[in-house]
Amino acid sequence: MDTADVVQKADDAGLRFVRFLWCGNDGTVRAKSSSRHGLEGRLRAGIGLTVAMQAMNSLDQLQPVEGLGPVGEVRLVPDLETFRVLPYAPATGAVLVDHVALDGEPAAVCQRSFLKRQAARLAERGMVLEAAFENEFTLAVPADGDYRPVDESLCFSTIGMAASQDYVEGLADALERQEIVLEQYYAELGHGQQEISTGHAPALRAADEQILVRETIRGVAAQLGYVASLAPKPWPEAAGNGGHIHFSLWSEDGSRNLFHDPSRPDRLSDSARQFIAGVLAHLSGLCGLTAPSFNSYHRIVPQYWAGAFTVWGHDNREAPVRVPSVFAGMEEASTNAELKSADATCNPYLALGGLIAAGLDGLERGLEPPEPVEVDPVTIPGSEREARGIHRLPQTQEEALAALESDDVLTTALGPVLAESCLAVRRSEWEAYSARDAEFERRGHFLKY
Ligand code: GLU
Ligand code: MG
Fold it and tell me: Any alpha helices (H) in 59-155, and if so which ranges?
């Protein structure tokens, strides 16, 4: 698709605006819009943005990061293939963008370019990471200056489905119009909690679509008078919202699932085992990218099915790396692993780039995963857990960020600018939220993700 094709599509749809969408180090989605006037030029040369935005946290507090202050610009340059007409916003379209320095090179802080670099490292081995985000979220209605869940229904309850059916119809329609494949929908455990799974795609497209899906979940809600939130722990006592990431490695032509080996009892190939071993070896630091918010650590606690210990297991919903059983007749296509210690407050480019960097370390070093854990790890006595090298994942945002900082594989992959800015932004959120009460945390996350 070239500039003229996008302009033609914009005109056919009668668009007034095209949003240039990006996701920051703080995991929020932001945009600048081009109007129809001058759209061709902006699609080609991008829109200017202060370099400071990548030093901004999710409370709009600018952090002191070298080179990301008040002086300097990047260009938000669109990937034209990502163009969509937005069904939930009048006469508006969207594109996903790279952050490009004024010399035309990818900016060091560009998360989307980081993911492309990691995908290119995999491509050198003839491999592609296919990924799918599985978003849980909360549908609420405004009530007395606050928000109340749209239902009080049970897990997978059809009464819960009925309470949200006008919204879900709008959501499914909006996803279809954006050519995002919807696989499943159901009402989940928490009051007002919903879950959708969308189709898998190569890593970059999966991350782009995760931004579009998050926008659609909230945008359709706003249009219908609801509030939808992907906050990891919307209410302290209720079920958390995961943003699980399903992943597998495929041959470059897409013809073979390299995670699949029918000769093994669990059908996991050597490559799958090594990649999973790498993910497990870096899991604590990876949490700083996949579950990076203050609120994330109120979700990742034992016995909430979010995966709180450094284990993997087959069909084990208390394992942060779960290997789901395959579907009969679709064994190869359905072989994959799921990262449960992830939520939708992550920047999806950082999360998937970090996942690839961790998995690649496993492939490069030929790592073997530890014994899989086929019970709830909290039921294993502490001394046995210790002996088997099973630890708690980070219990706070601060711990996750410390683990990320001390993980050389992840920080080397990120590069100094991205590692430093991402840590500075997220650490400032820890400072802000740990100094305040639970209500400040709840509203802060509920309304921004
Ligand atoms: N809500 C759980 C979480 O926070 C996940 C439940 C499930 O396994 O679907 O990740
Ligand atoms: Mg679920």
Answer: 111-124
118-446 placed in CATH 3.30.70.890: no
Closest CA to 72 of 118, 34, 103: 103
pTM, entire model: 0.97
Q: Which CATH class is domain 3-107?
A: alpha beta
- Ligand found nearest the CA of 299: 1
User: What pLDDT band is residue 27 in, cutting at 50, 70 and 90?
Assistant: very high
Burial of residue 418 (CB within 10 Å: 0-12, 13-18, 19+) is buried
For residue 237, the model assigns a pLDDT of: 87
State percent of the chain over pLDDT 90: 98
168: helix, coil or strand? helix
Alpha helix ranges (H) inside 311-396: 331-334, 348-365, 382-387
Distance 237 CA to ligand 2 centre (A): 17
Residue ranges covered by each domain of the chain: 3-107, 118-446
| CA 302 to ligand 1 centroid distance, Å | 12
Q: How far is CA 303 from CA 87, 266, 376, in A?
A: 38, 25, 8
DSSP string for 188-218:
-SSTTEEEEEE--EEHHHHHHHHHHHHHHHH
Distance CA 338, CA 3 (A): 37
Ramachandran bin of 136, using left for φ above 0, alpha for ψ from -120 to 50, beta for the remaining angles: beta
Q: Which two tokens stand for residue 110?
A: 């560009």
Identify which of 447, 292, 297, 305 has the alpha carbon closest to the alpha carbon of residue 376.
305
**Rounded-to-integer distance, Cα 359 and Cα 443, Å:** 35
Q: Tell me, rounded to whole angstroms, the distance of Cα 383 from its chain centroid.
A: 34
Centroid of ligand 2 to alpha carbon of 373 (angstroms): 20
Residues with CB under 6 A from ligand 1: 136, 239-240, 242, 299, 304-306, 317, 340
288 pLDDT more than 90? yes
